[in-house]
Specification:
Blueprint lengths: L7 E4 L2 E11 L3 E8 L2 E8 L5 H13 L11 E4 L5 E5 L7 E2 H5 L8 H20 L2 E2 L8 E3 L6 E3 L6 E2 L15 H5 L14 H17 L17 H10 L20 H6 L5 H16 L8 H13 L1 E3 L5 E3 L21 E6 L2 E5 L4 E3 H4 L9 E7 L7 E5 L5 E4 L5 E4 L4 E3 L5 E5 L2 E8 L1
Antiparallel strand pairs: 1-2, 2-3, 3-4, 4-6, 5-6, 7-9, 8-11, 9-10, 12-13, 14-15, 14-23, 16-17, 17-18, 18-21, 19-20, 19-22, 22-23
């Protein structure tokens, strides 16, 4: 069934009017509709779907979205001729497609905002997997981003299903794990390997690499051997013989100078622990899919560390200082000025470099929290004296601070903690922090 602008249909005693066509994909068309006075998106499938697909979609609608980051199917609609579709909320206009970011049409406000998006992406996968789901149809059109704050929206969720269950959709080349591309035999089911949490983790790492480096982790020098990248070439590059472009002791597939410019510029600036995580997934994870692909929890800790360590140079560029690395960035990698003096908040294993606009998150002060993007404090500048910085709190409880002389003071839950060297802060039981200033 196909609709045109101005058409309408009856459903559940309501009139649904087609206002516009939003998209036309392989599975179906998506329309902007007026559903009893409310504007929604409506997707209808081009062909009649299987009973398994229908049941899975209805079951997903019944269970609801894993989190608010998903544009989840909301209402199943079936027509007399057997065609069916579903309603979902519209994407807000401030969100841009991931494709527009990859092609340079959209830019994140800052590197910190980009890492916010990466963290939300990983957390969304974690929420999905904790429900026993796998995404199944990962591709660059699945994700949207708010370039101002790093919030994420994930669409095309009608193919989400339980691990190792087939709905006839395997994913998109360049995102799928090699074992899915090849059609390996699952050691448990003894049937063709279906998407699951382990293949999702491979795809997640691909998306993170694209976000951080603006290039595919398996596209390098080996592209030169193909006149055209057709299905056979893609099968070799991403299935039968994938070679990570930064595989240690193998330079056969390094990025091509003059062609993979973004990757060549961005990858060297990544912290070593992020590089190691990619290598683990894209090299070791090819052989051991169950144990050598970085998990969501691991990614969250690494990306949070990356964001914590960012420092802004006077040239305007952000870069990670590199606490604990063999060679910290004592110079700006962009303009080569010496890294300015700074203070950082030491709390547990976290070192949060303090500068105006930097946030302290709930996960920093609560080791049991997974709220990596819920702020509990923000570094602010004193209005009367710009040389004085402090941490503006947003807590439910007061905190206790102690200076280098041993003098103690209670700060209100919405008060400001001065950024002073050797100041100790007690956020709560087991959450003791210290401000350390380096010159």
């Amino acid at each position: 069934m196909k609709f045109a602008k101005g058409d309408s249909f009856q459903y559940d005693g309501k009139t649904v009017k087609i206002l516009d066509v939003l998209g036309d994909g392989g599975q179906g068309e998506v329309y902007l509709v007026d559903n009893a006075g409310k504007k929604l998106a409506f997707k209808i499938y081009k062909e009649q779907v299987s009973s398994d697909f229908r049941y899975n979609l209805q079951n997903n609608i019944k269970k609801g979205a894993p989190s608010s980051n998903y544009l989840w199917p909301k209402e199943f609609i079936e027509f007399e001729d057997g065609d069916c579709g579903y309603m979902m909320d519209l994407r807000d206009k401030e969100y841009a497609s991931f494709v527009s970011y990859l092609t340079g049409k959209t830019h994140f406000k800052s590197k910190r905002v980009m890492l916010n998006w990466c963290i939300e992406l990983v957390k969304s996968f974690k929420d999905l997997h904790e429900r026993g789901y796998s995404y199944q149809d990962l591709n660059d059109g699945s994700f949207f981003l708010n370039p101002e704050n790093g919030k994420i929206l994930i669409c095309d969720n009608d193919n989400v299903t339980a691990d190792k269950r087939s709905l006839g959709v395997l994913g998109k080349m360049r995102y799928m794990a090699p074992e899915i591309v090849r059609g390996d035999i699952d050691r448990l089911t003894k049937e063709r390997q279906m998407p699951d949490v382990h293949s999702d983790r491979f795809s997640l790492a691909v998306i993170l690499f694209l976000a951080l480096c603006l290039g595919n982790p398996f596209e390098g020098e080996r592209l030169k051997k193909y006149v055209i990248v057709d299905e056979k070439a893609e099968f070799e590059l991403f299935g039968s013989n994938p070679v990570y472009i930064y595989k240690q002791n193998d330079t056969s597939n390094r990025p091509i100078r003059g062609y993979h410019t973004a990757v060549l510029k961005r990858y060297p600036l990544l912290p070593d622990y992020i590089k190691e995580a990619f290598h683990k997934t894209f090299v070791d994870g090819l052989q051991d899919r169950e144990n050598s692909r970085v998990t969501e929890i691991e990614w969250l800790k690494l990306l949070n560390r990356f964001r914590d360590e960012l420092i802004t140079c006077s040239c305007g560029e952000e870069y990670p200082y590199g606490f604990g690395e063999k060679k910290p960035n004592r110079k700006c990698p962009y303009c080569h000025k010496a890294t300015r003096s700074f203070c950082f908040l030491l709390i547990g294993k976290s070192r949060i470099l303090l500068e105006p606009g930097k946030y302290i998150y709930k996960t920093h002060i609560d080791k049991y929290s997974s709220d990596y993007n819920t702020p509990v404090g923000k570094v602010v500048i004193n209005k009367n004296n710009p040389n004085l910085w402090g941490i503006k709190l947003g807590l439910t409880n007061n905190v206790l601070i102690k200076d280098s002389t041993g003098s103690e003071k209670e700060v209100a839950n919405d008060g400001v903690i001065p950024i002073i060297n050797n100041l100790k802060i007690k956020f709560g039981e087991g959450a003791i922090a210290q401000i350390i200033c380096e010159k």
